[in-house]
Amino acid sequence: MTDIDEALKTRATQWFAKLRDEICAAFEACEDDVAAAGNPGGLEAGRFERTEWSRPAGEGAGSQGGGGVMSVLRGRVFEKAGVNISIVHGEFSEQFRAQIPGAAEDPRFWAAGVSLVAHPRSPRVPIAHMNTRMIVTTKGWFGGGGDLTPVFPDDADTADFHAAFRSACDTYDADYYPKYKKWCDEYFFLPHRDEPRGVGGIFYDNLDSGDWETDFAFTQDVGKAFRDIYPAIVRRHMDDGWSAEDTEKQLIKRGRYVEFNLIHDRGTKFGLMTGGNTEAILMSMPPLAAWP
Amino acid sequence: MTDIDEALKTRATQWFAKLRDEICAAFEACEDDVAAAGNPGGLEAGRFERTEWSRPAGEGAGSQGGGGVMSVLRGRVFEKAGVNISIVHGEFSEQFRAQIPGAAEDPRFWAAGVSLVAHPRSPRVPIAHMNTRMIVTTKGWFGGGGDLTPVFPDDADTADFHAAFRSACDTYDADYYPKYKKWCDEYFFLPHRDEPRGVGGIFYDNLDSGDWETDFAFTQDVGKAFRDIYPAIVRRHMDDGWSAEDTEKQLIKRGRYVEFNLIHDRGTKFGLMTGGNTEAILMSMPPLAAWP
Lengths: 292, 292
What we know:
By secondary structure, chain A is α+β, with helices and mostly antiparallel strands. The first copy, chain A, has helices at 6-33, 94-97, 155-170, 176-187, 212-237, 244-264, 266-273, 278-281, and strands at 48-55, 64-73, 78-91, 108-120, 127-136, 140-149, 189-190, 195-196, 200-207, 288-290. Chain A contains 8 helices and 10 strands. In chain A, strand 7 (189-190) and strand 8 (195-196) form a beta hairpin. In chain A, 47% of the residues are buried.
């Protein structure tokens, strides 16, 4: 593997856990603060529950060791929100080596990251996804991003979500935002429906500018941007009521979310095919979805 | 293409439509006959609605022409049941030619078939799938099968479902049933969950014994076996009531069904990747599914 030292891996890993804690706190604060109209079922405020998983490293091609922590909130604002952190290591199997930078030379890898999907109960509150990760093979890089999937798109939400990521990007490189926004638009697209998953955001991968500190700072800023803007958007809408028709539209949109994640999402496919933790990977599935 | 003449294609196509009509009639009879306990919502008997789709043949690799008819029932016994017939032709794209018998020599193909998925409203009535098809490239063959996915497996149902297919198989070859049952068990399996989709049935493909008439007769008998046994199993349970807990289990089982179809099912992947009719292909999705 590359000479990225253990101290850097530790710093990245600690950051992913800290970001997880901050986002979980922001979500739980929404749970506490929702008004009666936004909680027609009269449910109690939800809290994240954590489950650790781990498995011993195997031997040879395709083996993976490591583990992670799933944090799941089943609440009144968030019908289901999952935030996973994981630190895994092992060897890529033959089929993956050619696709992964630096893995052809040496199949060993180390990877850590934080991954989040939020399925709000209210159809008026957008679904969101965020992920950031650090990968080490004979090369080392960061990847991540966030995207918003409203059932009822709202121009101000879309503009502010993008502005938050643009601000994180522009500090580092004026090319980042246009490039990563485009990547997001292309990636989160359902060709069989000929429709985008949502209103976009940013998506980046294989980021290795040659300056680890700067790339890590950028990755932190992407996480912070999401941590600040998404709960703010949730709060704009969480106190509003909604109709049964709104819910029907939400369930259909969630069905599209399922289609994207199971048919197209690289992370999901990669995880399931490399024997990742199924419960953690499929935490992204909505609590209820419809194909009427 | 092979010299299988148009008359044979027409006979197969007509059979698929006839089988569709007979199954639709059997399902509608269930809709008429359900007792009050099996229809707690007091819904009216459902009827199949048909939608034709077609598209002009394109040119060159990957092109497909033809069309089909979707028949969808949204009723009181069957919350959603879809029966599709299709007749398509065209050329396989480069990526598929190596995988399809006889397509490496000449990429042109013709295919017709009938495909069914039934999602009953009652968790006490098993989900079912059936498909039979005739394919022509430079070779010609039949494929198909049926499998049962109960939320609450019932030994008598499982035994009778298998016995029906065994009977269809044994008329032709004593090796068919054990071979096709095993194929079904291996095919309808969710490796990421380490669980079978349901209680099996039979699955066969590339059937070309050298005697088209016999293979066609077998394929008809497979369809007839399903046409007779599945509605009989539905009738055993459709008049029973169920609990909210039963429904919760049903929604989770349907989630697994979604996972299988979108992650593993060859027909679904093949259809979506070759630009098939998305609505027809995803007719197999349950009306509502849960990942709690």
